[in-house]
Design brief:
It is built from 14 helices and six strands. It is of the alpha/beta class and about 280 residues long. One of its GO terms (biological process) is methylation.
């Protein structure tokens, strides 16, 4: 069970980096308030909030929330009882995490524990302007657009994400629910205007990055450092790059529009030739 922080006298001589590391250690050990943390390291709450966010890319509250969620997810993956996992992770009541379960875990804790058991996911393979795409959707929206040449490998990636979900393959165009979503994805991958409802599953910081990417206009790029600065985390370029690498919704969440500071392409989950091709197409439009 997580412990509450007992405020201690703030040390007078801790350099800035050590203070932030001390704050992170306190967050890893308990559930201190912002005022408790500020008192512990001798900073004002507002100054601590700014400095911590700039250093780690998350506010102290967001860091704590993600740590608790990570503890919960690990316990559920290990097969722990749901109620015990919730309380051990520091959730005083199961109601809050259940109310927001779909947004934070992509499904309720019980289903996450079971590898997606009970989650209904329809998927299909689609020939697109960018080659073969596996498109998968929950009732909430598209949860995966995976590109590749090998259909078996694409299916394996989906099953790896949701090993015990009810995965239903449907033929493109034969499912009233999936048909319009496949059409929207095909339009998006062809560079046409399209509205694609998506179901993004990730950490708070990853979702911030993905939201920022979707605000980059077609034909433009931003550097990893520029995106980090926009999110209030000027030292978070590597974290931004990691969030891009974990994006499972190709093109619609346009991680291809993020490049290195010197203008070179950087990395891309689906290969640099495709990244260059899509950027060239968008600039020419």
């Amino acid at each position: 069970m997580l412990k509450r922080l007992t405020p201690q006298a703030a040390p007078d001589r801790i350099d800035s980096a050590d203070k932030l590391e001390r704050v992170r250690a306190l967050l890893d050990a308990g559930e201190p308030s912002l005022n408790d943390l500020a008192a512990a390291v001798g900073l004002s709450p507002s100054h601590l909030q700014r400095r911590f966010t700039a250093r780690f890319g998350l506010s102290p509250a967001e860091y704590l929330a993600q740590r608790k969620l990570g503890t919960l997810k690990s316990a559920l993956r290990e097969g722990r009882d749901v109620s015990a996992a919730l309380y051990d992770a520091g959730y005083g009541s199961p109601s809050r995490v259940y109310e927001r379960g779909a947004a934070k875990l992509g499904m309720t804790p019980a289903r996450y524990r079971a590898g997606g058991e009970g989650e209904q996911i329809r998927w299909s393979l689609l020939d697109t302007a960018l080659g073969t795409a596996l498109v998968a959707t929950t009732q909430r929206g598209i949860c995966m657009i995976e590109l590749g040449e090998d259909p078996a490998a694409l299916e394996a990636k989906l099953r790896g994400e949701f090993p015990r979900a009810a995965l239903e393959r449907v033929d493109a165009g034969r499912d009233e629910f999936l048909r319009p979503r496949l059409r929207a994805v095909a339009d998006a991958l062809a560079g046409r205007q399209a509205r694609v409802d998506i179901d993004l599953i990730g950490t708070a910081f990853q979702k911030k990055v993905w939201d920022a990417l979707m605000r980059i206009p077609p034909g433009e790029t931003r550097s990893y450092a520029e995106v980090a600065a926009q999110l209030g985390a000027p030292r978070g370029a590597r974290a931004v790059a990691s969030a891009c690498a974990h994006n499972r919704v190709a093109i619609v969440v346009p991680c291809h529009r993020v490049v290195r500071g010197d203008g070179s392409l950087g990395g891309y989950r689906w290969g640099l030739p495709l990244k260059e091709q899509v950027l060239r197409r968008e600039r020419a439009a």
